[in-house]
Amino acid sequence: KVLTSDAAGLASWQTLSAPAGTGLVKLADVTLGAAASSISSGTIPARAYLKVIIFTATGVEPQGGVRLRFNSDAGANYDYREKINDSPETSVADTTGLAVIRGDGGAGFIELEIRNPAAQNKQIIHHATNQPPGDAAPTMRRMAGSWANTSDQITSITLLDTGGANILGAGSRMIVYAQE
Q1: To the nearest 10°, the Cα dihedral for 80, 75, 69, 91?
Q2: How close are the terminal C-alpha atoms of the chain, in Å?
Q3: Which DSSP state fits 37?
Q4: Which residue of 15, 99, 141, 142 pairs with 128 in a disulfide if CB–CB is 3.0 to 4.6 A?
């Protein structure tokens, strides 16, 4: 809301709305009712730009198998460059998903922005943090990644433990937005 005044000088609050085509629309909002090995957006409409927010409730255990995948693609079609805390950057090529969270057993927050053209690799910008149990400093993760698929747009997003353990606590949530 914005405070405005009319010609007589009377103040009033006015609600402003964004011009059509400039806002975000929610495509999916999923919350786990119990611990699970994965959380998925379900099928979402294909859009050119996506924003994904994931909250992982306490329960992510230390393991390298926590991955983000698109359209159920478990092939070695994901590449990324990441930086965790103050460590040097590392590059990972031809892997079976994006390692978007570091398992420390604490709650996590993941944010992704995705360019999603049908005929090009999908580009991903990723930021994440998770809070280890106790008073330890939170872990910070930054990544630039891609999904090598030049024939389809992303129509589903899944965060999973490839080993099948119930690593995501009850209350973990995934929200997917798209540009109008």
Answers
A1: -10
A2: 22
A3: S
A4: 141
